[in-house]
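Predict the holo structure. Ligand: 2-keto-D-gluconic acid.
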Amino acid sequence: MLKPKVLVTRRWPAAVEAKLAEDFDAVLNTSDRPLSEEEIRDALTRYDAVLPTVTDKVSAKAMDVAKPQARILANYGVGYSHIDLASVANHGMTVTNTPDVLSECTADIAMTLLLMAARRAGEGERELRVGGWTGWRPTHLVGTKVSGKTLGIVGFGRIGQEMARRAHHGFGMKILVQNRSQVVPDVLAQVKAEQVENLDQLMPECDFISLHCPGGAGNRHLINTRMLNLMKPGAFLINTARGEVIDEQALCQALMFDTIGGAGLDVFEGEPRINPCLLQCENLVMLPHLGSATREAREAMGFRVLDNLSDFFAGRAPRDKVA
Ligand code: 8YV
């Protein structure tokens, strides 16, 4: 039997690429150059499966093909707001993602950003590297204590829950949760969390806010000027979810005018482009979308895609079917 033709859009961990090449008629992107919308459109007409990442805009334009050959988009990553689900439905295609295997590592990066922003680690490192450190003094780069403070979690899915575990059990933080549906009491109880009705209630109560909700049109600019104004003066905003969830211009204003204490971002609107205003903000820590960037998580994500593909082509329902 002919093996399904599969396009891998970026370089993946070697062990996963090797297995893909064994199990499928796989074309790998050895140059690791991101695909254009036109190339994605072309791929949809020539492969049985396309394996995109966050850097592939599988937009309505890219999916504007009469009859795609691709029957499945097996996404490498948990977030899939770069895939136009209306077009997917029109073509009767399947979409899968890779949840669970990156939750701990992404929460680790959220906690890294939280600690770095609170303790001014980015500022300190920058000062030291340019030879600007004049020595210890009691008033030097004084930050904000993390232990025992209140953390607000927006989106209490798998990653949000991992973040809560770290914050509560590691740093004795009080956890408040905002989530679109009611969280089961047992899950909240594990971190002694309290769920509030909405963001208007959450924002003013927290010393730290960490975003773990999906991206996409529905949550675009969820954190806007009004929400930032509801934050405590001196509070910190952390985003490891998707860039579009924050209105970056509004965040810049809040950081420039010190209406909040600071922020930590791993994701950006229109990444890898960085809003020039953000680069001016000293009280901001930025990482280049490193949430799942560990050997363990990236391999597990790849093998999860393989499982989804094997199930799909064997006629079974893939465990991570999201559309
Ligand atoms: C991935 C992520 O590395 O899984 C996600 O949603 O944001 C990242 O950790 C990236 O999306 C790969 O496509």
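The longest strand covers residues 150-154. The mean pLDDT is 98.
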